[in-house]
Amino acid sequence: MLVDDLYAKSKHVKVGDTIDVLNNNFRVAGIVEQGKGARKFLQIGVLQDLIGAKDKASIFYLKLDDPSNADAVVEEIKKVPGMNKYVATSMAYYLSMMTPSNYPGLSTFIDVVIGISVIIGFIVIFQAMYTAVMERTREIGILKSMGASKLYIVNVILRETVLLAIGGIVVGIIFSLAARLGIVHRLPTLPVVVTGGWMLRAAIIAVVGAIAGALYPAYKAAQKDPIDALAYE
Predict the structure, then answer these.
(1) If we measure between CA atoms, which residue out of 156, 198, 201 comes closest to residue 180?
(2) 79 CA to centre of own chain
(3) Cα-Cα-Cα-Cα dihedral sign, residues 46, 49, 54, 58
(4) Which of 7, 101, 144, 214 could form a disulfide with 129 if both were Cys (CB 3.0 to 4.6 A apart)?
């Protein structure tokens, strides 16, 4: 049998090794470039015997001279008498159907995960900022005794929160990209997509969540009486 280079790399397979396919051992006779339509290749007659489908095939691939003619070829195939009961589609259309929006429940699952992450992030930020405000009660009292307004106190706390959020976003993106490289290196056949759109959405969620989580601690800090804050231990 033949295998492609991605399979060989992920499974540490080389020419001459033995691979089990459908409870049968086959010797790897060669390694081909990826993108040929499969990871492992057997003679069609051998595979038909293994699955009990002699002289039958489940799918055909057509390679065109120009990919832009795919839709026209699909239409011509459908016009052939008897072909209307079979599925004929272009590879571009087939791949477009393999998106989260076309998998039942997957989009909802992703939204639920994002919602839970936002809630957890809000609680963590709220706790961290509330603790930070309580630890700086005397400093806040000093600022207020020097004439700092409530708006100034709120502004200081929110600016610190935004800076921390931005730092967390940068670190998170770096870790995500590093994890992607590690996964791709370890599992070449597992695609991991990190797009700019997802990064932007994650950044917006992080900043909004950070500000929302810091609003109440900032408000509480601004309401503190300078005398009570200076006497706080």
Answers:
(1) 198
(2) 41
(3) negative
(4) 214
